[in-house]
Amino acid sequence: MKSSIYDCVILPLSKIHNRAGNITIIESETNIPFSIKRIYYLYDIPGGEARGGHAHKELYQLIVAASGSFDVLLDDGQNKKVVTLNRPDYGLMIIPGIWRELIEFSSGAICLVLASHKYDKNDYIRGYNDFLTLKSKQKAIRITDSEL
Ligand code: TYD
Hints:
By secondary structure, this protein is mainly beta. The chain has one helix spanning 128-147, and strands at residues 10-12, 16-18, 21-23, 38-42, 51-56, 61-67, 70-75, 80-85, 90-94, 99-103, 110-115, 124-125. The protein is built from 1 helix and 12 strands, in the order E-E-E-E-E-E-E-E-E-E-E-E-H.
């Protein structure tokens, strides 16, 4: 859980372009630094709706705006940042221990998510206060370690 928002990076993805359009390819462990166990996508999101609002304990994700755009709010308990995704050839990698919220979906947006594990409801931290408690415990362990 000692993760930082600064380790959640934008990864440029491959793009093969020709006059008939573009193709982007993502291969497990080749273009992204984890093995893909699950793919899902969010779509038909009503205007003004927010998704996410949780953190994961073990899960790595690559989030891609396959169509349209949206903002991803990232929070590691100390720092926050907002990343706008609006291109299908860029992905945002979110590492474990990061609170995220997805907002400002454009009409027709498709949020593609590549995930490192199959669905596990026990991997979710759904309460923001629980998240902050876990992060502050981790910070306390880090400080103790550095004193040794
Ligand atoms: P959730 O992860 O809370 O969605 P979001 O973060 O986009 O707001 O999941 C919404 C619902 O879908 C919840 O009931 C759990 C279910 N779900 C699965 O059954 N399998 C999955 O792989 C995912 C991502 C969600």
